[in-house]
Amino acid sequence: MQKKMTGVLQPLGIPRKIVLYWGGLKWLLFPNNRISRVAEHPHTGDTAPLGYYTCSVDAKGRLKVPADFLVYMRSLGAQFFLTSYDELDIQIYTRDAFLKQCEFLEDLALKPDFQDDAEDTLFRMRDLGADVSPDPEGRILLPPVLRQRLSLTELPSQCHIGKDRDHLVVMTAERYQSLRTKASQSNPVDTAKRMRQIGLR
Question: Looking at the whole model, is its pTM more than 0.85?
C-alpha cells in the first residue's frame, strides 16, 4: 500500500494502528495521528544498497538491475520514470519523486535568473525520459534517444549503479572511470584529513 503523507493527518476513526509504506520506508500510523517510522536498516532505515554495483545493458538495450537494487526498487513500487537531466548519467525516479522534480523546476522557472535553465532541464528530462517498470528478470528497456545521448551505442555494455538521495543513478563505464581517475589524482590522506576537520567521521 502506497500512501503519500503530507500536511496534518485528520482523525481516521480506526481504533488500531495501520501500516503505511512511503518513500521506501515502513511507517506506523496510530489512532491519535502519531506516526512512527519502522527502521528497516539498523543504521539508516533505508533498504537501498550502499556503494556502486556493476550492472550491464544487453544487446537489446535493456538495463539489467542487480538483484539487491531490484529488491529495493520493488519495495518502492512497480512504476518508475527513467531519464537524464545532464546527459551524463541516467536517473531512475519513483513517479512521486519525479513529479516533485517537475514541481521544483516549474517553480524555479518563475524566477527570471533561472527561467531558461529550469525550462531546458525540465524539457530535457521529459524528452529523454520514459515510464518504465522492471520485467520479471529485472530488466529495464532504455529509450534509444537516451542511449544515443549517453553514447551507449556499442552493446552489450557495462555500467555502474548506485543511490543518490531520492533516486538511483546509472553511469556508463567511461563516466565511472573518469570519476575514479579524478579521485585518484588527489592525495587520499590529505583529503581525508580536511574532511575530518569539517565533520567526516
Answer: no
